Glycosyl transferase
Amino acid sequence: MKKRVLLVASGGGHWVQLLRIRQAWADMDIAYVTVQESYRSQVADGRFYRVTDATRWDRWKLLRMIAEMALIVLRERPDVVITTGAAPGVAALRLGKWFGARTVWIDSIANVEAMSMSGQKVRAFADLWLTQWEHLARDEGPRYEGAVL
């Protein structure tokens, strides 16, 4: 039986980075979640969901996005949640963890000086917590396993 994988990314660079590592789950049952409907055509290899684009600055949109993500996690019942961030990835990781999924956070390549705020917040919920910059890796995490440049 194929592993069910939920792949989550905000728009822009977060989405591009997620797609750059897509061969890693080529033989799995996958579903994508993002904030842009226009990205649907880029992922014909899996199910596609769009959630409200939200940040910590807009609490109502954030609550709506979390509710939408909860419905997706309940529907998909993923074995693994993988995200490159940001807000939708945080929600997916926490919800996925509550429902028993293994979780992977891959911090954005743009965060050269330090882990992103979202990346720092998910530390306790990520089974695998990754940075794309070797100098940011620590014994206690995040780990460096390469970059998607």
Q: What stands out?
A: The CA atoms of residues 111 and 133 lie 8 Å apart. The longest helix spans residues 59-76. The radius of gyration is 14 Å.
